[in-house]
Design a protein that fits this description.
The protein is mainly alpha-helical. The protein is built from 17 helices and two strands. It has helices spanning 6-33, 38-63, 73-81, 89-108, 110-118, 121-136, 138-145, 147-163, 168-186, 207-235, 242-257, 272-275, 287-300, 304-312, 318-339, 345-357, 366-388, and strands at 69-71, 264-266. It has a two-stranded antiparallel sheet with strand order 1-2. The chain starts with 5 loop residues before the first helix and ends with a helix.
């Protein structure tokens, strides 16, 4: 390979591989939780790969910057908690459409972006932490139910957290995949390659789905993906074409919703790889890493059907355990951010507890009520803090 291309191409491949394997189980768990069949979940995973791959390729080539897109991993975790809303799949698809519209409108209407940015960061992070807790406890639960399958996965994850944290989630997924293949083979079901297919569902719209799923999905995607993604790239010296990116991801989410794509956004965690010195000493050539990641995501899309069908045969708790392990680091970061400011700690804890409780009131899920509870408690406590300040 020509000198100067090997390093960014290699990092681009790593970016796609880590991004896919570290959170693919979260996406499947989320889609299944809101009513997707195995075929519809596979369609959603493949569509997300295509959307983020094509979008990453276009943005990186157009702007010659390491701009990468990703599916909304926190959004997928939110879907898991939305199971209590008892929505059918078409209503969930409608919520995906509304989320995509809101993302696009944010690019066109700066006021909406400022409104989301005005949500206190500790409350948004606390809500996210409460949402993530549902999945992050799954490895603990599964250890008591299927210890022979889950214990090796958890042990490998722990070892790699010590020596190679970046690869802990992908390696845990790979081991779980091997173990599942072994189980289905012993049971006589066997593992086979599935042809990639797309399954389209017409959206339906309901108040409960819009307020209980679409709005929290939008807030989580903005607060936990798009805004941090901009910060990561800014720290590396790159400016994000904000309006164009939101329009692209919003339109892509709307277009892919019927096929099961819940949300596409700027990459946050994996965004650091193509933008870092690991992608090459020349900042002007790091876009090659992002473009390579885009091509790799497109290449991974056909594997979605096979992986989804295989995971559908896994013993209960295995896929949820892999998803939970992949999100432990995000949970830790969210809890730290939520409780860092003593003045915001009580409202943040309230938001966390409501989100973690998984309640459904008036057909609206816990994420919405978590933000509302945090904001109300913040309002109640604010005068008291002001009175106490001069003492």
């Amino acid at each position: 390979m020509e000198r100067g291309w090997g390093q960014p191409v290699g990092i681009g491949l790593v970016t796609a591989l880590v991004g896919f394997t570290s959170s693919f189980a979260v996406v499947l768990a989320g889609l299944r939780a809101v009513g997707a069949s195995t075929e519809q979940a596979a369609s959603g995973l493949a569509t997300l790969c295509v959307l983020q791959g094509a979008g990453t390729l276009w943005l990186s080539l157009r702007h010659r910057r390491p701009l990468t897109l990703a599916w909304s991993t926190p959004g997928a975790a939110l879907l898991v908690t939305a199971a209590g809303l008892h929505l059918d799949w078409s209503a969930a698809v409608g919520a995906f459409v509304v989320c995509g519209i809101l993302l696009a409108v944010t690019g066109l209407w700066p006021w909406l972006g400022r409104t989301v940015a005005a949500i206190p960061a500790p409350l948004a992070q606390a809500m996210l932490a409460g949402v993530l807790l549902t999945l992050c406890v799954q490895p603990v639960v599964a250890l008591t139910r299927t210890p022979l399958l889950v214990a090796p996965v958890v042990l490998l994850w722990l070892v790699l957290q010590r020596f190679a944290p970046r690869w802990s989630a992908p390696a845990a997924f790979a081991l779980a995949l091997v173990l599942v293949i072994g189980v289905v083979t012993v049971d006589g079901a066997g593992a086979s390659v599935q042809a990639p297919t797309l399954s389209f569902t017409a959206p339906t719209f309901s108040w409960a789905a819009v307020v209980g799923l679409a709005l929290p999905l939008y807030v989580v995607t903005m607060a936990a993906q798009n805004v941090p993604g901009v910060a990561v790239l800014a720290a590396a010296g790159y400016r994000v074409p904000w309006r164009q990116t939101l329009l692209l991801t919003g339109a892509g989410t709307v277009a892919g919703a019927g096929a099961g794509a819940h949300a596409v956004n700027l990459a946050a965690i994996t965004a650091a790889l193509p933008a870092s010195a690991e992608a090459g000493p020349d900042p002007e050539r790091r876009w090659i890493a992002a473009a390579t990641a885009g091509v790799a995501y497109l290449a991974l899309a056909p594997a979605a059907a096979t992986l989804t069908a295989l995971m559908a045969q896994a013993p209960p708790g295995v896929i949820e355990s892999v998803a939970g392990l992949a999100l432990v680091g995000t949970l830790a970061a969210s809890l730290t951010a939520a409780t860092a400011d003593p003045a915001e700690r009580m409202p943040a804890v309230a938001a966390f507890l409501v989100a973690a409780g998984g309640i459904t009131v008036l057909g609206i899920g816990a994420a919405f009520w978590a933000l509302l509870a945090g904001l109300l408690l913040r309002l109640v406590l604010r005068p008291r803090r002001r009175l106490a300040a001069p003492v």
